[in-house]
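task queued by scheduler; priority normal; single chain, no ligands, no partner chains; default sampling; output format set to structure tokens
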Amino acid sequence: MPPPDRAQQTPAPPPTFSAFALRLLLYLFAVSLLFSVGGLHQKLGPMQQLIASGVSASANAFGAPATVSGSVIQLDQAALEINHECTGVFVLLVYATFVLAYPAPWSLRLTGIATGVVVLMAVNFARLVALAVIASQRPAWFGYFHEYFFQGAFIALLAFMASVWTERVRRATVGHVSD
């Protein structure tokens, strides 16, 4: 029997939301294992020190006298330690798992992740500089900005970036999305 004519083949059904959600949860689980059980968080020391040096120099430029020793930024009224949670790596991993789980061509996934690295790392660095300046000049405000304002801002940024990226994918792939 000859193969069916391509014009008569039924197209593959579009990817479902439940398949995306399941992939996202599985990827998040795998990343969390890598981060904690795999010890990724213990290997971020050089990155923490690099960030601390940059934040210290930037804080000085904004009038907040700071010195750095390893991953600790010493200010007049406070000392800030840049630990693995301050690197922005976990936020980046959450965004990357979303992009990887979403049904899109690989070229768009890779550009989405590259854009996320640049944007999230830049915003995180600006956040740390702002926190250093706040700790130096308005220490009573530090807790609010560290625990509430910037946490909420990062959640909003992740939602915004995910929606912008999915809209870009939709526009680029209308009629030919593949899983």
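post-processing summary
- The chain has one domain: 19-173.
- Strands lie at 66-69, 72-75, 79-81.
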